[in-house]
């Protein structure tokens, strides 16, 4: 039986098989997302290309692409890059970012689940910090057909390290968001609304179930944010976009700044940021 590569020191988070997120979760957040969301180290992207065995001569499809955190740097590594996201604001801002970077990308507004692609057209498919928001089984099955022989599906992300305590300032941020929502409930849900009893499974285990051979790697990068960078990153999160915070978002920001400076008066906010990627190759003959 084929299994995902083991990393016993890093527990892998599990997610519902069919999450239910609002399709306009990040409406209006494109500029904040482009400016403050963490990109991916060049060495990591080069390593992914190598592990995937990609030549760069084929087509890379970046699903749920956001504002191009993967598509834009990968456009320097692939002949053709196709970036797809279901939110128009993300596509608009991403296209502007790509133009500023001087790279050509095909941008399409669509959900990953409804995308129509000719089988065998793609060399590499990437999904960054978004696979948990998709119908993962449906996407994994579609990807098997879309990929040309030797192609791969890559799931990647960055964020908190599973099992590790939060930085003290991140706890402050989460408390501030929770307090704000209690007194100013968002007009629409900002989190997964799927049934609580739905089966949960890690990305790697699901891909193995769907007939992929999976290699996985995770690592940690120490970094430091400024106060403005912390605030900007908060605005890029689905539960604290300016839209989700409502018309008095400026009051939230003032309160959060005060709380953060009380914890770190120097305005510097260190953290250990986790990165991961899983490269999944379809197994020939698997159902």
From TrEMBL:
Residue span(s) of domain Methyltransferase: 61-151
Annotated Polar residues bias: 182-196
InterPro entries: Diverse_substrate_MTase, Methyltransf_25, SAM-dependent_MTases_sf
PANTHER family in alphabetical order: METHYLTRANSF_11 DOMAIN-CONTAINING PROTEIN (PTHR44942), METHYLTRANSFERASE TYPE 11 DOMAIN-CONTAINING PROTEIN (PTHR44942:SF4)
Name of the protein this chain belongs to: SAM-dependent methyltransferase
Pfam families per UniProt: Methyltransf_25
Residue ranges of the region described as Disordered: 181-201
Molecular function as annotated in GO: methyltransferase activity
Domain of life: Bacteria
Keywords: Methyltransferase, Transferase
GO BP, sorted A to Z: methylation
Species assigned in the record: Microlunatus parietis
């Amino acid at each position: 039986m084929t299994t995902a590569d083991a990393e016993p020191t890093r527990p892998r988070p599990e997610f519902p098989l069919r999450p239910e997120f609002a399709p306009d979760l990040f409406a209006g957040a494109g500029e904040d997302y482009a400016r403050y969301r963490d990109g991916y180290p060049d060495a990591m992207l080069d390593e992914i290309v190598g592990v995937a065995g990609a030549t760069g001569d084929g087509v890379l499809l970046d699903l749920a692409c956001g504002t191009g955190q993967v598509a834009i740097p990968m456009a320097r590594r692939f002949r053709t890059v196709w970036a797809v996201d279901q939110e128009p604001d993300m596509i608009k801002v991403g296209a502007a970012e790509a133009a500023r970077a001087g790279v050509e990308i095909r941008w399409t507004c669509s959900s990953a689940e409804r995308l129509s692609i000719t089988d065998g057209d793609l060399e590499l498919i990437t999904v960054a910090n978004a696979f948990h928001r998709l119908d993962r089984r449906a996407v994994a099955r579609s990807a098997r057909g879309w990929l040309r022989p030797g192609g791969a599906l890559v799931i990647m992300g960055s964020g908190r390290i599973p099992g590790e305590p939060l930085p003290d300032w991140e706890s402050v941020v989460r408390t501030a968001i929770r307090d704000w929502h209690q007194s100013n409930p968002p007009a629409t849900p900002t989190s997964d609304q799927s049934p609580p009893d739905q089966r949960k499974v890690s990305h790697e285990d699901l891909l193995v179930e769907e007939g992929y051979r999976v290699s996985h790697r995770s690592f940690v990068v120490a970094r430091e944010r400024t106060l403005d960078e912390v605030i900007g990153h908060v605005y890029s999160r689905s539960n604290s976009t300016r839209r989700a915070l409502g018309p008095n978002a400026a009051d939230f920001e003032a309160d959060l700044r005060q709380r953060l400076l009380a914890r770190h008066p120097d305005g510097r906010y260190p953290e250990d940021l986790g990165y991961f990627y899983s490269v999944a190759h379809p197994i020939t003959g698997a159902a």
